[in-house]
Amino acid sequence: MLDQIVFYSLSVLVLLSALGVVLQRNAVHSSLFLGLSLAGVAGLFASLGADFLFGAQIMVYVSGIAVLVMFVVMLLGRASDLHLRQVNDRWMAALLVCAVASVGLLKIARLSSATVATVAARPGTHDIGRLFLGQWLVPFELISLVLLAALLGAVFFTRTENAS
Amino acid sequence: MNAPLTLAHYMTVAGLLFLIGVFGALTRRNIIGILMSIELMFNAANINLAAFDRFLHPEGVTGQALALFVMTVAAAEIVVGLALLLAIYRGTDTVYAEDFNLLRG
């Protein structure tokens, strides 16, 4: 019973704050809702027994990406933005696309409505460490290269030309 | 409400979150809003990966490890996206996607 209460309340939190991200007119409110939604997803990871993903989600998303987005919103925002329409005029077509896609997605989800968890969840951090430094060593090193490239790219794109 | 949680529950939540992200990416005018919607879509994929790991392959951690890779790529993507946005904003003085027509010639 406790599992169900946790799952349903976290799902409502995630979906409602995701709607807040999409529909809020004020971009600062939008980014605050993004942080709330990502924290709810971290709770869903915890309810799935993925302990390391829970920690990584809090560290990377809630305290990294959401705060970064908030900084950029405050850096680029303008007071007049609050009076402008924040959705374009094709929102009806986008709603139609989402409605059609939801039929297919929910049909696929219903296929697995008999799949229940058979064994109890157990901590997986140790196994993830063994996997990353054993079988998946090459992808693990490559992803650090991707992070280095992203770091250099961010520095390269944001530097000002009149430094000399 | 008392029925046991199945894979379909998690897939439904992830699917709805993905659709909200798609709607936001298609309709927001503010490009920061589009980037935030893309983050929502990444998170929907991560919920699915963790749920598949829990329900279909409980003896391994492959799904969780794959979700960690997705998380890393998403972090790199948002950093480069925001840096590009700052660089474009310096030239065009706008954050609205329909005004980014520098390449029109």
Could you walk me through the main structural features you see in this protein, from its secondary elements to its overall organization?
The complex is a heterodimer of chains A (164) and B (105). Chain A has helices at 2-23, 27-47, 51-76, 91-111, 125-132, 137-158. Chain A has two domains: 1-78, Four Helix Bundle (Hemerythrin (Met), subunit A) (Up-down Bundle); 123-164. The mean pLDDT of chain A is 90. Chain A is built from six helices and no strands. Helix content of chain A is 73%, strand content 0%. In chain B, helix 1 runs antiparallel to helix 2 and helix 2 (31-56) packs antiparallel against helix 3. The chains are: A mainly alpha (164), B mainly alpha (105). At the A-B interface, helix 1, helix 2, helix 3, helix 4 and helix 5 of A face helix 1, helix 2 and helix 3 of B.
Keywords summarizing the entry:
heterodimer; A: 164 residues; mainly alpha; Four Helix Bundle (Hemerythrin (Met), subunit A); 2 domains; globular; B: 105 residues; Helix Hairpins; 74% helix; elongated
SSE diagram, text form:
The complex is a heterodimer of chains A (164) and B (105).
Chain A: H1 2-23, H2 27-47, H3 51-76, H4 91-111, H5 125-132, H6 137-158
Chain B: H1 7-27, H2 31-56, H3 62-92
Helix pairs in contact in B: 1-2, 2-3
Strand content of chain B: under 5%
Count all strands of chain A and give the number. 0
Mind telling me which CATH architecture of chain B this is? Orthogonal Bundle
Oligomer: heterodimer
Tell me the count of domains of chain B: 1
For the largest beta-sheet of chain A, the strand count, sense and barrel status come to: none
- Give the C-alpha Rg of chain B: 18 Å
CATH class of chain B: Mainly Alpha
Shape verdict of chain A: globular
- What is the count of helical runs of chain B? 3
- Per CATH, the class of the largest domain in chain A reads Mainly Alpha
Strand content of chain A: under 5%
The SSE string of chain A, one letter per element, is HHHHHH
The CATH topology of chain B is: Helix Hairpins
The percentage helix of chain A is over 70%
Shape of chain B: elongated
